[in-house]
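Title: Comparing notes on inverse folding

I've been comparing how different people in this forum approach sequence design from structure. To keep things fair, I'm posting one structure and asking everyone to reply with a full sequence. Here's the target:
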């Protein structure tokens, strides 16, 4: 029996990194390949450009993000206990992308797993990682959100191809005995009744790849945009307001809302319901589009690099995505 004394700790983010592929696809590019316009994309979504990874799979995005984190912080690969990769575009069914990342960076003492939570994947992985830290068994848990959405986007479908981009971002979780810092609360949900609103039909065990599935273009994202929009606006706002209430937070207390970046109109509706102003919202959808599991850590990385996140800042992280999956995390930023 393990008789080790377990201290009460929170998990806090102590390092951060990101990776964005160099290739930029701007709205003009999409005007050339489908019937769309820069004006439609900007006004309906807020997106101006997005990135595309030209060589390799999601493990490249995840590995580069972790390498960037290690450069930024001095973390050594052998110090890493666990690597969690949130993604819906793993390099392959198995082995897990986390294994590929582990080998790529030489994290010889780490175990890890992939987590499939779509656009809420990073929040689900953050909670899982925080729980591993709070168990007392692990001291350094890396949580990565990475997706190569270009690998499942149908570039003949104007309703989806303009929306998505490729990126990866990573955070390091470590314990803190100062419970005023780190991850304070999480409200997370699945609602599988939305399974047919946003999905990729083929390639899984229910509909394995065949000539027919390829001919019918079933290995691409399908989205009923309006249906998802309606539930996303309500779901993301409800859960964000709920976590504020549960933690007695007023709009003034919140330094930033860090929302999933699917649509600027969904983000604004969430901020409005929370009563917070535009300058309290992390926004980078214009530069990167919807990068699925990467949007939230990418937002944190961008704002931290820009000197906008300060130690003690109260942050609400919120997401809504395929599944449906949705949720909010309340954390107090602890990096200087
Ligand atoms: O991250 C995971 C969760 N996903 C989301 O949260 C996404 C939620 N949904 C959305 O963000 C929006 O529904 C979209 C951005 C996907 C679409 O915006 P919308 O305002 O809901 O447009 P719509 O689907 O109602 O389409 C309006 C019109 C349609 O034409 P008609 O039928 O009115 O003639 C579409 O065919 O816009 C047309 N349309 C386009 N036009 C030009 C759809 N896509 C395009 C396009 N360019 N790219």
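Reply #1:
Here's my take.
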């Amino acid at each position: 029996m393990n008789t080790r004394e377990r201290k009460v700790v929170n998990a806090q983010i102590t390092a951060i990194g990101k990776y964005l592929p160099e290739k930029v696809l701007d709205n003009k590019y999409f005007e050339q390949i489908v019937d769309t316009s820069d004006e439609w994309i900007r006004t309906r979504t807020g997106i101006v450009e997005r990135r595309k990874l030209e060589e390799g799979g999601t493990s490249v995005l995840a590995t580069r993000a972790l390498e960037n984190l290690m450069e930024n912080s001095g973390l050594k690969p052998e110090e890493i206990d666990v690597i969690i990769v949130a993604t819906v575009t793993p390099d392959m069914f198995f082995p897990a992308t986390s294994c590929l990342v582990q080998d790529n960076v030489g994290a010889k003492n780490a175990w890890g797993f992939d987590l499939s939570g779509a656009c809420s994947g990073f929040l689900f992985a953050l909670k899982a990682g925080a729980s591993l830290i709070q168990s007392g068994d692990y001291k350094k848990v890396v949580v990565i959100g990475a997706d190569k959405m270009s690998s499942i986007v149908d570039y003949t479908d104007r309703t989806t191809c303009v929306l998505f981009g490729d990126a990866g971002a990573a955070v390091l979780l470590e314990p803190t005995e100062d419970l005023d810092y780190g991850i304070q609360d999480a409200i997370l949900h699945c609602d599988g009744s939305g399974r047919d609103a946003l999905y990729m039909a083929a390639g899984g065990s229910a509909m394995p790849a065949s000539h027919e599935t390829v001919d019918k273009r079933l290995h691409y994202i399908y989205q009923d945009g309006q249906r998802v929009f309606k539930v996303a606006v309500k779901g993301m706002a409800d859960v964000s307001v709920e976590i504020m209430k549960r933690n007695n937070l007023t709009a003034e207390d919140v330094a930033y809302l860090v929302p999933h970046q699917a649509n600027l109109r969904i983000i604004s509706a969430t901020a409005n319901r929370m009563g917070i102003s535009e300058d309290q919202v992390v926004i980078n959808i214009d530069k990167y589009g919807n990068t699925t599991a990467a949007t939230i850590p990418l937002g944190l990385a961008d704002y931290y690099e820009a000197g906008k996140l300060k130690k003690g800042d109260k942050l609400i992280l919120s997401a809504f995505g395929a599944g449906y999956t949705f949720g909010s995390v309340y954390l107090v930023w602890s990096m200087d």
